[in-house]
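Second attempt. The first submission of N-acetyltransferase had a stray character pasted in from the spreadsheet, which I only caught after the job came back as garbage. Lesson logged: always re-copy from the clean sequence file. Corrected sequence (195 aa) follows.
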Amino acid sequence: MALGYVRPARPDEAGDIARIQLSTWRTAYRRLIPRQVLDELDPGWLTERWREAISAPPSPRHRVLIAIEQAESGSEAPAHPVGFIATGPADEAALAPGEEPLPADVAAITDLLVEPRWGRRGHGSRLLSAGVDLWREDGFRTAVGWAYERDPATRGFLASAGWEPDGARRALDVDDLLVPQLRLHVDLTAEPQAG
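This time the job returned cleanly.
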């Protein structure tokens, strides 16, 4: 039996986060993003970007949380970083083309990834729930996140947590290939549903 939990990421885990990101993108998005783009991603560069995001975030409301899976038996049981969420106040990266800035009480998911081999163990739900708790503490009233149109797993996961499309769309230019995305949102002022 395994235990899972979420905590703030540490700077020394930036390499784990980069590994999770690369592994997930190369598995989950291999039919969406050109292979040469995925193959050319530099783990060292990603590691440094994540180290900076963890150790010097733009504001106290920018966070990187990490999901850990740990074997149940004994305190010396190995623990494995298996996913992460990066969030903060909605900025220009959260906008659709031509859209006005979002209100200050809107949070945004920058990344929410669980390495595919660790999927379906509740890590994504724990990450999202921890993010929602922190957003509420920080006074955010709404949260947004982008999903690829051709990524039913992410869209379905967010929909199962009460997220809905808000009508915003964009297409990322990835090596001269336009990859359509849609934005989802959730009301953070609603009372949490009892499980």
